[in-house]
Design goal:
Elements lengths: L8 E6 L3 E7 L5 E8 L5 H19 L5 E6 L3 E2 L4 E2 L10 E2 H9 L3 E5 H12 L7 E7 L3 E7 L2 E2 L30 H5 L1 H13 L16 H9 L3 H25 L3 E5 L7 H14 L3 H4 L2 E4 L6 H14 L10
Parallel strand pairs: 1-4, 4-8, 9-12, 12-13
Antiparallel strand pairs: 1-2, 2-3, 5-6, 6-7, 9-10, 10-11
The structure holds zinc ion (ZN).
The site of zinc ion has 6 residues, from loops.
């Protein structure tokens, strides 16, 4: 007789470019994993596609999960799970949590995808053993989540962890949120590309000028930096320095002992982490911040799904049923 694994949870990761589902057990091991590009669709059509992908992940795992967790872009009403993701404009106040609960017949928790990432890394990845962890996704945007004592810190409205909108400069480009000088303007892929385009308009010499403006991405800027381009190197230095400033602020406020950084920009490796650690030594002067570990994420491609499923594991798992916070 096949033994039924215990505490299986379904994870659903809803991004602007890809959708992923999978089933994990209580050790974080993936029993199934499916990923597709996010198709153009109307609100209900997109939901049906996600539902089908979730059911296929359950079928492939060969067992029935007891709960489901969803990581999705914000803004959203937490914990109601009505979502209006910036990267999925067809969903405006879409009742994702209630629709999934009705159709899957499972308890469902919906939360910010960066918070899910932080929880996944805290429980099963590079954040294991940390007492107070900041998980950061540095990609097209910059997001984050705080995990203290194995639990996500939600804040008053569920929005704790928005480190991308910590202000790191008193002047500069205006962020999508309306403020000036947010970390996202300096350290996200879109922010770096925007700063590169502005520099080129000002007449700064760079090999990036040979590119069409829409073709300038963080990857292209990295290639130029590796080739010795001064502007590209400066943009990466500013990204690293801005990250160090934001992390130093968070570390002083929260008494962090580890920061795990994931997302596409960590592929820059030492180009990002070298100057970041150098700048860190300048900004982290308090005794309790000096030993903070700043490390790359460990869970790789499945991190979104593992984090989403971890939301359900901590929300509905056997050791959590007595202290649901909603
Ligand atoms: Zn902002």
């Amino acid at each position: 007789m096949t033994q039924q694994p215990e505490n299986l949870t379904l994870g659903i990761d809803i991004g602007g470019t890809k959708l992923a589902t999978g089933v994990i057990d209580a050790t974080g091991r993936l029993h199934s994993y499916l990923v597709i590009p996010t198709p153009p669709s109307d609100a209900h059509g997109l939901f049906d596609i996600i539902l089908d992908l979730a059911r296929r992940a359950i079928a492939e795992s060969g067992a029935q999960p007891t709960a489901a967790g969803v990581g999705c872009g914000g803004p959203m009403e937490y914990p109601a799970g009505n979502v209006s993701p910036l990267h999925i404009p067809v969903w405006q106040g879409f009742p994702l949590r209630s629709r999934l609960q009705e159709t899957l017949g499972l308890p469902v928790i919906v939360d910010n995808d960066a918070k899910a990432f932080a929880l996944g890394e805290a429980l099963f990845g590079a954040g294991q053993g940390a007492k107070c962890l900041l998980g950061m996704v540095v990609s097209t945007g910059v997001g984050g989540g705080i995990v203290a004592g194995g639990r996500l810190w939600h804040g008053a409205t569920g929005n704790a962890g928005h480190i991308g909108h910590i202000v790191v400069a008193s002047e500069g480009e205006q962020c999508d949120c309306g403020a000036i000088g947010c970390l996202t303007c300096f350290a996200s892929g879109t922010g770096m590309a925007e700063r590169a385009r502005h520099a080129l308009v000002r007449g700064v010499e760079s090999r990036l000028a040979a590119r069409p403006p829409a073709g300038i991405t963080a990857r292209v800027i990295l290639e130029a930096a590796n080739g010795g381009d001064i502007l590209a190197q400066q943009l990466w230095r500013e990204a690293s320095q801005s990250l160090a400033i934001a992390i130093a602020g968070a570390a002083s406020l929260l008494d962090l002992d580890r920061v795990v950084i994931g997302g596409g920009l960590i592929q820059a490796g030492d180009f990002l982490f070298g100057p970041l650690r150098h700048a860190w030594s300048k900004y982290a002067r308090l005794s309790f911040t000096r030993d903070l570990q700043i490390v790359p994420a460990a869970l790789g491609q499945g991190s979104g799904v593992i984090g989403a499923a971890a939301l359900a594991l901590t929300e509905f798992g056997p050791d959590r049923r007595d202290d649901l916070h909603k």
